[in-house]
Design goal:
With 116 residues, the chain is α/β, with parallel strands linked by helices. It has six helices and five strands, in the order αβαβαβαβαβα.
């Protein structure tokens, strides 16, 4: 446990790719936010995910529903972890997809290409 976590707690809750995939089929689906850059998103993203690059997240908070759980996604889990911390501090219920798109692809889960 690092010094920050010891004093402030670990504010990032992680889900693995199988948990995210299972949650997508639940009655109340989470909002999937991909915080990568548009060119990364275009190469392959989780179907149904919404692109909001990490650098734009602060400006887009007002557009996000506070009554819905949010799962943040990036390439490996680092940027999405930062996004989760921002969202949690702004009052959102948010989770990090551990391992990011690299883990999603390794698991052979579905991808969509393009921006839409």
């Amino acid at each position: 446990m690092n010094l920050f976590s010891r004093f402030f707690g670990n504010t990032t809750q992680n889900l693995n790719v199988n948990q995210v995939r299972e949650w997508q089929t639940a009655a109340k689906k989470p909002l999937l936010i991909d915080v990568r850059q548009p060119e990364e998103f275009r190469e392959g993203h989780i179907p149904g995910s919404k692109l909001i690059p990490l650098g734009e997240l602060n400006h887009r908070l007002k557009d996000l529903p506070k009554d819905r759980e949010i799962v943040c996604i990036c390439r490996s889990g680092n940027r999405s972890g930062a996004a989760v911390r921002k969202l949690v501090s702004a009052g959102f219920k948010s989770y990090n997809m551990r391992g990011g798109m690299k883990a999603w692809q390794r698991a052979g889960l579905p991808l969509k290409k393009g921006l839409l």
